[in-house]
Design brief:
heterotrimer, A: alpha/beta, D-Maltodextrin-Binding Protein, domain 2, 12-stranded mixed sheet, B: 6-stranded mixed sheet, 4-stranded antiparallel sheet, 25% strand
Chain lengths: 344, 235, 550
């Protein structure tokens, strides 16, 4: 009996399986002369159209190091990853938490103080956090379609009380950052009567989505004339599409702010490099990239003037903001309140 | 020493029981008769090893096969249906009797040809079962049985679905093969008269029990047992 | 003579291969599945304190969510399956019309399309600003179809699952032996009695499995329910799991919720199986000639093509919207983007690996399940084993991923093996399809041939190659194609493990959207859908051979 043909077929099969596995497996870390700085951030930061690639290039040019971004779904995912990893984390820096998460992040005990002299940083907002440094900020806003809504609301109150005011798409505060932002916004405007405000608003809410992408997509498809997003959203349409069809409604009570921050992980070998990165982050080389890649306002000093479109954006009369402490203490309670009012 | 010895076979499925014990000489052809549900097919399944005994033993040619796997028993079966793999050619179907993975050598090919010739199907090698008549299919299966060169053949009403003329033809073929290949046969039949044409001896099963055993012609022509009389319809 | 027997015996056993006990493949497969499932669940439990667990269990909100989840999943399943039966029947009756294979291909597409893309497609047709409402206004009616609510959930679930059900039910007709049709024509049976007496018994065999899968899919549906359900009233347990893992970071709560989901789904599916107990297959040489007597019954042609047309329209409309949005976008700049193709390649490798993993695990489970049913005569255990392969559908990938992540963390290769893990989890997620699609054919094979095989000693690799493969080839090809396209379009766990180089196509799509590039995203979505079709067709052809697609 000659070598049976089945065997050879099987061999081919197994070989191709192994081949596939090797293809799927990247080489187990190549020892590199350059030190590596690992940064956990959210997906849209590292995306090809986000600031990530430019930041990487600019920083690597001056640090002689290897900057490695790990992109996770969003800010909340960053925090839960950190909690999961604990001291085993391979992050040197976490970039992309916002101030509704920093208190909880700090409680992990994983963060080291940034030791930077804040007054010299030239931040465009008051800041006194010893652990986290802001790199950009924005304000939540109701974006409306000028072709479908002639009479946009001029205050949160007007939005809620005008029964004929058109429908609104929002995000779920349980699953998305803007959703949580709106919850806090309504809370800071209405305080203890927030549940009633939500009950009043509920019939006007077309739907509640899991994340920003679904909501904004539905809005662009014309499902509703209003959507919850950022004051900076119109800038994208003005710059990339040369259209001023979509505008932010300017609310008299002010707008709730989202401040995005970065922090340094404690006890990591690349501590010095991490300090360098944080300094770089608030410098104009980083800050100049922010407006048209992350579509937010730079938190630090810039050298280039803001793009023209940014000057046309709504500048909130008042910035509303809860401290990280307040958010952490009340988040669950407020979300339950919201759920209750919305499920009525 | 008898060729096959079935000692105190006992099998149970839910609340139904089969009990039997008999032996068979080499070259004998035994018919198993009895009403539906008597346990005829189960008896064959036990000998072939598809079902497990609770107690008792099966010895064939002096060796104990009570717990052997079906493939390890010197037994070959012809079923009522599904004797052929519908997607495989005649030759492959027969060839599976030589090697379960169809790794066939010169000798095997020769054996296949001879077996097909013996059942009168030379030249059918590349046909698919669906292009064959019912009788031809069973003959292909018979060819495979021959190929296996096992001394004991179990027939579970393999011709039940065939026309009377064909049935008679197949019986003739079997009869001839028993002689030429020195086979020992146990056959289940619903037609005692037809079975008697090739079977020299017979057993009668009723509700899982062996009620009578004897020379076939005696059983049929001179039944003593009331149950057997009732089954045969003689007053 | 005795020597001859002995020597033959020896020569046979000498030539026989290594014997693998029948329980081993399925046992191993079960071990892998339960290790992954329960290791990840227990890792999550272990990760946090158990204090809040009891409050979770008795939370009235959770009970309400549970009720709604069960309600919408049952309704979606019922509708999908009930509507799929006439469609599948029409397709089974009309086997030769032009474009049938294209149509069948199309039916495989919805389930492989990323959820967000489907949502956009459905909204374009049925939304407030969608085609349907435009048409209604055009004809001067004043009412409006309101998508958001149970309607939206049902439409989307129908869109996903009705075609899937059709594809899962259709092979049942191939199991009807020709004799039955001949007999029926002799008896002068009309269409109605044909269905009742011939088709329904065969359908009953595949219904529980198909309905089970669809129920699990709807039960675990999350983004759709939230978006199209119109608000937090329409919430599934998955949302709560997501929230527990992501915002509250209470892994133990997430694990508990996942466990609740697992238990409920297991019970439901088991009940479904019990209720629609599989009947034994009718015997006979099954052929596909479909010589049925009611083909030329008056009006039957009209009815069949009417049904096919309606179903096709329903499935095709959102896909056409996707096509239109894609073609009006910046096609050139998107397809000339290098990163698109490298992402597609990554996705492809994950897809092939996932399909391979699912097929291996599935075959192992099914082989042992068959062994249990026919050799050990333990049909209950056999069904239980098959069920175990379906349960991966209800443990959210996120829970598995998070659990596995915390398990593997100490070993430190999570990032380097990211894609392998993704492929593995995807493989688990698509395993139920392999079981549902290949299972019936394999069981039927066992029913016909298990005595023959065991007497001839055909087992293991030989049995697979000579006896099983030729029979299961078509469903296997279809299921692997489905698996590959499902994981090709799945965003799922890639984003969870964190990526730096491992870009996949759905991830790229999300990046586009995140950068406000909705138009470019719709081009990407179109390319993703087209590539899904190509992958599906190629796998179907390569594995299933030219006669694939049934």
């Amino acid at each position: 009996m000659n070598p049976p043909q089945f065997k050879s077929k099987r061999t081919v099969f197994i070989t191709s399986l192994l081949w596939l596995l090797t293809l799927l497996t990247p080489p187990l870390t190549v020892a590199d002369a350059k030190p590596t700085l690992t940064i956990y951030t959210y997906e849209s930061f590292v995306s090809k159209w986000g600031p990530g690639p430019l930041v990487e290039k600019a920083f690597e040019a001056e640090c002689s190091c290897d900057l490695r971004f790990i992109g996770l779904e969003d800010g909340a995912a960053l925090l839960s990853r950190l909690k999961l990893e604990g001291e085993r984390t391979s992050a040197d820096i976490v970039l992309g938490l916002d101030t509704s998460l920093t208190k909880e992040a700090l409680e992990t005990g994983l963060f080291a103080p940034h030791k930077m002299n804040i007054p010299e940083l030239g931040l465009s907002l008051p800041w006194d956090d010893a652990y986290f440094l802001p790199y950009d900020y924005g304000h939540f806003a109701i974006i409306y379609d000028t072709q479908r809504l002639n009479n946009p609301p001029h205050s949160m109150k007007a939005l809620i009380e005008n029964d004929e005011g058109g429908k609104l798409i929002i995000q779920d505060p349980r699953t998305s950052t803007p959703g949580l932002g709106l919850l806090l916004w309504v809370k800071s405007v209405f305080g203890t009567t927030a549940p009633q405000a939500w009950e009043k608003l509920a019939p006007r809410i077309l739907t509640v989505t899991k994340g920003w992408s679904e909501a904004y997509g539905l809005f662009l498809k014309g499902e509703a004339p209003m959507v919850l997003s950022y004051t900076t959203s119109p800038a994208y349409h003005m710059i990339a599409e040369e259209s001023d069809r979509y505008q932010a409604a300017d609310f008299a009570e002010g707008h709730y702010a989202q401040i995005e921050v970065a922090g340094k992980i404690v006890n990591r070998p690349q501590s010095k490099l991490a300090d360098d990165f944080l300094a770089f982050m608030v410098s104009p080389r980083f800050q100049d990239l922010i407006p048209t890649t992350n579509w937010m306002f730079p938190a630090g000093r810039t050298e280039k003037p803001l793009p023209e479109a940014f000057n046309k954006l709504v500048r909130p009369v008042r910035t509303l903001h809860f401290t990280p402490n307040e958010v952490t203490t009340h988040r669950k309670e407020w979300i339950n309140e919201w759920l209750h009012s919305m499920s009525r | 020493m008898p060729f096959i010895e079935l000692e105190a076979l006992c099998y149970q499925r839910e609340d139904w029981q089969l009990k039997a014990a008999f032996s068979l000489e080499r070259g004998e052809c035994l018919a198993v008769i009895g009403p539906s549900g008597a346990g005829k097919s189960t008896l064959l399944s036990l000998i072939a090893g598809f079902e497990r005994l609770i107690s008792g033993s099966i010895r064939i040619n002096g060796r104990d096969y009570t717990t052997a796997e079906p493939a390890d028993r010197p037994v070959t079966s012809l079923f009522q249906e599904h004797n052929l793999f519908a997607h495989l050619s005649v030759k492959k179907n027969v060839g599976l009797g030589r090697h379960p993975g169809l790794r066939l050598n010169q000798k095997d090919h020769l054996a296949i040809d001879q077996a097909l010739e013996a059942v009168g199907l030379s030249g059918y090698h590349h046909r698919l079962p669906e292009s064959l008549s019912g009788g031809e299919r069973q003959r292909v299966a018979l060819a495979r049985c021959l190929c296996r060169e096992h001394p004991l053949m179990l027939l579970d009403e393999p011709f039940a679905a065939l026309d009377p003329a064909l049935r008679s033809e197949m019986r003739g073929l079997i009869h001839q093969l028993i002689k030429s290949h020195d086979l020992t046969v146990i056959m289940v039949s619903h037609h005692p008269d037809e079975a008697a044409e090739i079977a020299s001896s017979g057993i009668f099963l009723h509700q899982g029990e062996l009620k009578a055993k004897g020379v076939m012609s005696d059983l049929l022509n001179n039944p003593q047992l009331p149950l057997l009389r009732a089954y045969l319809g003689v007053s | 003579m005795d020597q001859r027997v002995a020597s033959l015996h020896e020569s046979l056993t000498g030539r026989s291969q290594l014997r693998v006990p029948g329980w081993l493949p399925g046992g191993l497969s079960l071990l892998v599945i339960s290790l992954i499932l329960f290791a990840s669940l227990s890792a999550l439990f272990f990760n946090a304190q158990l204090a809040s667990l009891t409050t979770t269990l008795f939370d009235p909100y959770l009970l309400r969510v549970l009720r709604f989840t069960l309600w919408q999943a049952s309704l979606s399943t019922l509708l999908s399956v009930l509507l799929a039966i006439p469609v599948a029947r029409a397709l089974a009756r009309r086997t030769t019309f032009r474009g049938r294979s294209v149509l069948l291909l199309l039916l495989g597409l919805p389930v492989a399309t990323p959820v967000i893309v489907v949502i956009f497609g459905i909204v374009e047709i049925y939304g407030n600003n969608g085609t349907l409402n435009h048409l209604i206004r055009l004809f001067g009616f004043s009412f409006q179809v309101n998508l958001y609510g149970l309607t939206g959930i049902l439409i989307a679930h129908l869109f996903f699952n009705m075609p899937l059900a059709v594809r899962m039910l259709l092979p049942a007709w191939n199991q009807i032996p020709d004799e039955s049709w001949r007999l029926a024509s002799q008896l002068g049976m009309k269409s109605g009695s044909l269905f009742k007496l011939i088709e329904w018994p065969v359908l009953r065999r595949v219904l529980p499995g198909s309905a089970g899968i669809i129920f699990l899919l709807c039960f675990a549906s999350f983004a759709i329910v939230l978006v199209l359900g119109g608000g937090p009233r329409a919430t599934t347990i998955e949302v709560a799991i997501y929230q527990a893992l992501r915002f509250d970071f209470e892994p133990s709560k997430a694990a508990l919720l996942a466990l609740i989901q697992l238990v409920i789904c297991t019970l439901t599916v088991a009940l479904l199986h019990h209720w629609l107990r599989a009947l034994p297959l009718s015997s006979g040489l099954a052929t596909t000639s479909q010589n049925r007597p009611d083909l030329n019954q008056p009006g039957s042609r009209l009815i069949d093509f009417g049904i096919i047309l309606v179903a096709t329209t329903f499935v095709a409309l959102p896909l056409l919207a996707l096509l239109r949005a894609g073609l009006t976008g910046p096609v050139l700049s998107v397809i000339s983007d290098q990163s698109l193709w490298s992402a597609a390649l990554n996705s492809l490798m994950i897809a092939i690996a996932a399909a391979g993993i699912a097929f291996s695990l599935g075959m192992a489970l099914l082989t042992t399940s068959r062994y249990l049913r026919f050799h050990r005569k333990q049909p209950n255990r056999s069904e239980l084993l098959e069920l175990s392969g379906s349960l991966t559908l209800v443990v959210p990938p996120m829970v598995i991923a998070t659990g596995l992540f915390s398990l593997l963390l100490p070993f430190g290769f999570v990032f380097d093996w990211g894609l392998v893990l993704v492929a593995m989890i995807n493989g688990l997620m698509v395993l139920p399809y392999v079981i549902r699609l290949v299972g019936p054919a394999l069981l039927a094979n066992g029913e016909h041939y298990h005595h023959l095989c065991s007497e001839l000693g055909i087992r293991g690799w030989h049995q697979f190659k000579l006896i099983d493969w030729p029979i299961i080839r078509h469903p296997a090809a279809f299921s692997m194609g489905l698996c590959a396209t499902l994981s090709f379009g799945d965003l799922g766990v890639v984003a969870l493990f964190g990526t730096h180089d491992a870009m996949t196509l759905p991830l790229l799509l999300y990046h586009r959207i995140g950068a406000y590039q909705f138009e470019a995203a719709s081009v990407t979505a179109l390319i993703l859908a087209l590539l899904c079709l190509v992958v599906f067709r190629v796998i179907d052809l390569l594995i299933g051979g030219r006669r694939a697609l049934h």
